[in-house]
Amino acid sequence: MNVRMLVDCRCELGEGVHWRVADARVYWTDIHGAALWSCDVEGGAVRRVPLAADLCSFAFDADGGALGAFKDGLCRFDPDTGERRMLRPYMPDARKTRMNDGTLDRQGRFVVGGIDEENLAPICPVWRAGPDVVEVADPVGIANSIAFSPDGAVMYLTDTPTGLIRAYDYDTARGLTGAGRDFARVENGLPDGSAVDADGRLWTAIWEGFRVEARDGSGAVVAQVEVPVPQVTCVAFGGPDLRRMFITTARQGMDAGALAAQPMSGSLFAIDLDTPGLPHGVYTGGYEF
Q: Where is the active site (predicted)?
């Protein structure tokens, strides 16, 4: 299956993509470009909101605001102006770490981890935010692939350098993880952002892999989407029937020769699939951490 380019945004590190039902738009962040991007379902009416700090992942609330995992911590921010208010700093004594991948559980709580940009050492906590903040997994070097099964009882997570996606029992009432198990090992690339479709398949962007992979409940690859750039970063389902998959990419660290060979790097891509995704939901955990 092949994709089409939707927006030639040339993001340094496109990430955090998801569909917002309230205004029928897809939103994504350029982490190192410190900007929040959005467009309509066909890639039109593009907007770029500059931000005061790098935004790594985020979730909208029901009031038009958003909870953002910025590089330095969790903030409530205005997606129209970029104005933000710090709620909980993230690893303030570790200069080379920042927040990274995050998503909502099925109850509207935000689960997010971080990255050690210096050594990729497993020192970064994975938090569940709302109504309090608690750690829900062992520390990681790069948190990615955070996603939830349709019933919310399984949480997926990878420490990207390991190439291994893990699955955890998830207590939907308390927002806590239980036993974890190996789910799948990614070959020919590394696992990045993920989303789950209505059939429970896990779709994962493969960094340095030119593709998105879908895995069934056993962890076996059952479908693949080819992307014409190497650094595939995150996926989300959207559109009026949730059958369009949006795919962010990056051009981080690519020299002039690599960009000449893959000029669409950093773009937003899309593909229409037979199986729909699941609604992303809104953040319900409050802002008193």
A: 192
Cis peptide bond prior to 131, omega within 30° of 0: yes
Residue ranges for the known binding site for substrate are: 98, 100, 118
Token pair of 121, please?
Answer: 């050492």
Q: How far apart are CA 38 and CA 41, in angstroms?
A: 10
Q: How far apart are CA 271 and CA 289, in angstroms?
A: 38
Considering only CA atoms, which of 195, 215, 106 is closest in space to residue 146?
A: 195
**How many whole angstroms from its chain centre is CA 187?**
20
pTM across the whole model: 0.98
pLDDT digits (tens, 9 = 90+) for 101-129: 999 999 999 999 999 999 999 999 999 99
In angstroms, the CA 56 to CA 71 distance is: 6
Cβ pair 212, 196 in contact under 8 A = no
Q: Where are the beta strands (DSSP E) in 61-175?
A: 66-70, 73-77, 84-89, 97-104, 110-116, 124-129, 133-140, 143-148, 154-159, 164-171
Write down the catalytic residue from 54, 116, 192, 197. 192
Q: Which residues pair with 18 in a beta bridge?
A: 27
Task: Say whether 284 sits in a helix, a strand or coil.
Answer: coil
Active site residue 216: no
Range 174-209 burial, b when 16+ CB lie within 10 A, else e: ebebeeeeebbebeebbbbbbbbbeeebbbbbbbeb
What CATH class does 4-272 carry?
A: mainly beta
In the predicted model, residues of the chain with pLDDT beneath 50 are: none
C-alpha closest to that of 60 among 26, 87, 94, 90: 26
Contact at 8 Å (CB) between 56 and 43? no
> Residue type at 196?
V
Please state the residue numbers annotated as binding site: 15, 98, 100, 118, 144, 192
